[in-house]
């Protein structure tokens, strides 16, 4: 069991309740990363499901939970031969923090009937850039859990030269050697810096709604994350992320709506 497996572990209490412990190692300046929190919820959902994989997850982030003990409450909405749907709620101190709807199914290792190509080209990983380590007082512990190498133009905001477009692109893998799986993908779809940074905004950009789809089981190796946005307006922005595996397959897609950071 890897550190990430332990940090996302869900322990069955009964058929509708799981105990979890939210790990402070996945903090982004205080709040816990949304992708990490989805991975925790999905551990419980899949354990209780007759199917093996979370093929679609829609999450509403009501509040930011703190590290420490919490519970996942499940409500089975539908159970079918090929798919099941479950409502999963993350609860702390009798308060709901995240509400999700998850559909589980069992994916095979099959070639796609048709697939598009990536929405952007990436330079080789050796020509990409690693972000500077955050200062200890920033409490950005998430960075230590993963390795990311960025397409240089998309991190121009670091030195005051954003491209002016909402975009972020990077290679991704866990810091501890681990082949990617659906739970790693849940983290990956929310691992990029907010695409609004590249458009000139800064600050914590809290996610309100995030939906992602598992399209295929990923091959070992680096994942490629391609992030973009369509509109920034009235303090809100959207973010779309494609995740491609080392075999060149589209393995995950996500879209989220978030608030523009306040400085």
Automatic annotation (TrEMBL):
Domain Acyl-CoA thioesterase-like N-terminal HotDog: 25-107
InterPro entries in alphabetical order: ACOT8-like_C, Acyl-CoA_hotdog, HotDog_dom_sf, Sec_Metab_Biosynth-Assoc, TesB_ACOT8-like_N
Pfam families hit by this protein: 4HBT_3 (PF13622), 4HBT_3C (PF20789)
Domain spans labelled Acyl-CoA thioesterase-like C-terminal: 126-260
Designated name of the protein: TesB-like acyl-CoA thioesterase 3
